[in-house]
Amino acid sequence: MGTIGPFTSALIDGGAYLLVIGGWITIAVAFAFISFWAGRLTKAENDGCLLAIANVLMTGLGGALGWLFFKNHYPFVIVSSLLGALILPSLCTAAFLRKGQR
């Protein structure tokens, strides 16, 4: 049996949760800034604030769905959770910007 490297050992000891939660927080903060920018761009600052709230919720929902789909496949659960947290707010922001261009 092979040895476990230091990075894999840190992930097994709970670092994966820290990595995923840190990624969710980073993505949520980034999309909050993007939402305020999109609201200012479309001259609908109040809608941009509502979009920021929706994007923070979508980040959590997308991350949870990504975690749920691959929870039994350990290395892929981190990537799928972060991709889910990135894709749902992206779709929400794209729909907002498409609506604002009409």
Description of the molecule:
There is one protein chain. This protein is an all-alpha fold and 102 residues long. Helices cover 86% and strands 0% of the residues. It has helices at residues 6-41, 45-69, 74-100. The model has no long low-confidence stretch (mean pLDDT 84).
Structure, briefly:
The chain has 102 residues and is mainly α. The protein is built from 3 helices and no strands.
Helix/strand layout:
Blueprint: H1 6-41, H2 45-69, H3 74-100
Helix pairs in contact: 1-2, 1-3, 2-3
Q: What keyword list fits this structure?
A:
elongated, single chain, 102 residues, 0% strand
- Rounded to the nearest angstrom, the distance between the terminal CA atoms is 61 Å
**Contiguous uncertain segments of 5+ residues:** none
N-to-C SSE string, H for helix and E for strand: HHH
Structural class: mainly alpha
- The amount of helix comes to over 70%
- Beta content comes to under 5%
What's the Cα radius of gyration?
A: 17 Å
Number of strands: 0
Mean pLDDT: 84
Largest sheet: none
How many DSSP H or I helices?
3
- Specify the overall morphology: elongated
